[in-house]
Design goal:
Blueprint (H helix, E strand, L loop, with lengths): L2 H15 L3 H14 L2 H13 L1 H5 L4
Helix pairs in contact: 1-2
Length: 59
């Protein structure tokens, strides 16, 4: 996955933890929309592996 997509997903997780869900969805959706077909499986895997980033407490 390209670095800017990973960064956007990480930012979406950060915003989710801060209860800024609308912004998080906008950023996450834009990143997924920019992804190539080859990246979609990797994004799904990343999201599965980083669920706690979205629901856990911020550092």
């Amino acid at each position: 996955m390209r670095p800017h997509i990973r960064a956007a997903l990480q930012k979406a997780a950060e915003l989710t933890r801060s209860n800024r869900l609308v912004e998080a969805l906008r950023i996450g959706e834009a990143a997924i929309d920019q992804a190539t077909g080859d990246e979609h499986a990797e994004i799904r895997h990343w999201l599965t592996e980083h669920t706690d980033d979205f629901v856990g407490e911020g550092n």
